Amino acid sequence: MGENAIEIEGLRKVYAASGNQPPKEALKGVDLTIPAGSIFGLLGPNGAGKSTLINILAGLVVKSSGTVRIWGFDQDRNPRQSRASIGVMPQELNMDPFFTPRGALEVQAGLYGVPKSQRRTDEVLELIGLEDKADAYARNLSGGMRRRLLLGKALVHNPQVLVLDEPTAGVDIELRQMLWQNVRRLNEERGLTVILTTHYLEEAEEMCDEIAIINHGEVLVRDKTSALVGRMDAKTLVIHPDAPFEGSLDLPAGVELERRRDGALALSYRQSQSGPEAILEAVRKAGINIRDVKTEEPDLEDVFVSLTSSKPAA
Ligand SMILES: Nc1ncnc2c1ncn2[C@@H]1O[C@H](COP(=O)(O)OP(=O)(O)O)[C@@H](O)[C@H]1O
Ligand SMILES: [Mg+2]
Questions:
Q1: Ligand 1 contacts CB of residue 49 (under 6 A)
Q2: d(CA 250, ligand 1 centre) in Å
Q3: pLDDT for 65-117, tens place per residue?
Q4: pTM over 0.90
């Protein structure tokens, strides 16, 4: 296995027309590599194409064109191996209420062709914290427990890549924390590559080493989370001088000046690099009397919206 757990090239998916619904191009030629051993976030608003991508990886949706390699196995040439390399926790809570957690895990292992002697049902039950509910009927499990059971089902065949589709949408904070702990542990202790989709920016920021932002079936940006967060800590100090100012400013490193039409000086900086004190000092040194000052600060939401509402660079 090389350094990428997943390699996707030119991936397209067009859902066929049905009824009066026209055909839908859900993925428009996606190229994406996901490093082995990482926790990778696929971030995007509803309808972006996240589940389509995930479901293609899982073998649940048939792609229209492009290539997908999972753990080095081409999905078309080595369908069995590529499928065995990945486990998916789906977005929907599809659970048969007549199964117990133990039963559900056993059935799932059977579907994946895991021989009885190699099953790890008790280990998985422990991992998801359902040992004491192993023999309870699924209909008697709380929503949180059912989610954990879905996580367990994704792990029965010991895949190298774990995919979680919106694992925390609509779950309470406690369960969210628990899921993340489990996922981190799997990543750290077993080197499991984890791919998760979410529309919560903060969640992606907290959990993921790298993030791809996807919208309308296209990848808009893909970067290390730290680099994306770097873009996000941009702040702007908007200074209105009491008289028009045409001169130059001796600004601290990394601060950028934009002169606005109304005569305001907009000074952008990164909180991690500079601060208002140093900027105001430079402004005063230039002999500017400040009539008014305000700050502009994109919150995470703004950054996300600005990225997902603009077209990618050609
Ligand atoms: N089975 C399907 N048939 C037709 N269109 C679909 C189907 N599944 C998803 N779509 C459409 O494809 C687009 C991407 O959907 P999806 O991959 O579910 O996005 P996300 O998971 O990011 O919310 C949406 O416009 C959605 O309506
Ligand atoms: Mg989805």
A1: yes
A2: 51
A3: 999 999 999 999 999 999 999 999 988 777 777 789 999 999 999 999 999 99
A4: no
